[in-house]
Amino acid sequence: MYMTLPHIFSEEYIQEHCPHCDPASDAFSTLLNESEHFRIVCDHHPIIEGHILIIPKEHFSCLGDYPEHIFSEFIDQYERVRNFLIEQYGCVSAFEHGKIGQTVFHSHVHFLPYKGDPLLIISEGMEHLVALPSFVELRRLYKQYGRYLFFSIDALAWVVNPLLATPRFFRDRFALALDVSERGNWKNMHMNERLMATAQEDNARVKLLWDNGEICSDRLSRA
User: Fold this and answer.
1) What spatial distance separates the first Cα and last Cα of the chain, rounded to whole Å?
2) Of 32, 20, 69, which is closest to residue 204 (Cα–Cα)?
3) CB atoms within 10 A of CB 149
4) If 0-12 CB within 10 Å is exposed, 13-18 middle and 19+ buried, where does residue 30 land?
5) Alpha helices for the chain (secondary structure H)
6) Secondary-structure breakdown of the chain: helix, strand, coil percentages, each rounded to the nearest 5
7) Is the CB of residue 168 less than 8 Å from the CB of residue 97?
8) What is the pLDDT of residues 35-93, one digit of tens each?
9) Are 110 and 153 in contact (CB under 8 A)?
10) Whole-prediction pTM value?
């Protein structure tokens, strides 16, 4: 049963009781990997099977806010998740709301299997996109403007006109592009037993694939 008191989902409650600061929260129910400064988890409300988050243990607003040593470790974790999704699902996209359009105010970079035209995500047109050469540039943009919207599809990445931002900006748009709109709003999804049962099944398969990959890697390293 997934019914939860509505006030638990209020912006005020989430700000005061950050689910990404609490390792016992539902956000970490399917833990894939834990490093010194990060946890890699399946999104508790996945848009699609393979929806994974990288979450720093310390409370930062977004990856543009990371200090240098945290940022360096993030790059390693980013490549790890990216390689896993490409190997298991054949493609990967990522996104993050850089202190704009967030519904949880603790950095969490989303990854999911998706390959398509960026205009399926940003239907307003390419004039609202600027190519992003690296995460170093993303940190510069955050330092200069204090916000950003970032997404990638395979090897290409962009920042989006922040004037377009709305809560769940990328979740809703990727869900629409994947024809699973009902899974865009994670709060509504949480209240739907059918969707949450499917989410658990999706995450169990991802966990199995991840663990099997870790076992194979360990065997190869000892060979």
Assistant:
1) 46
2) 32
3) 24
4) buried
5) 11-16, 68-89, 135-145, 169-177, 186-190, 193-222
6) 45, 15, 35
7) no
8) 999 999 999 999 999 999 999 999 998 999 999 999 999 999 999 999 999 999 999 99
9) no
10) 0.88
Contact status, residue 138 vs residue 64, Cβ threshold 8 Å: yes
What is the SS3 assignment for 212?
helix
- Other C-beta atoms within 10 Å of 90: how many? 9
Identify the structural domains of the chain with CATH numbers, from first to last. Answer: 6-222 (3.30.428.10)
Q: Which two tokens stand for residue 11?
A: 């912006």
Residue type, 169: F
Q: Give the tokens for residue 121.
A: 């995500």
By the 10 Å C-beta count (0-12 exposed, 13-18 middle, 19+ buried), 80 is classed as: middle
Nearest to 172 by CA among 157, 188, 159, 161: 188
What is the C-alpha R_g of the chain? 17
Angle CA 6–8–13, to nearest 5? 125
In the structure encoding, which two tokens stand for residue 94, read together?
Answer: 């990522």
State both tokens at 113.
């299997």
Kindly state the DSSP code that residue 57 receives in the 8-state scheme: S
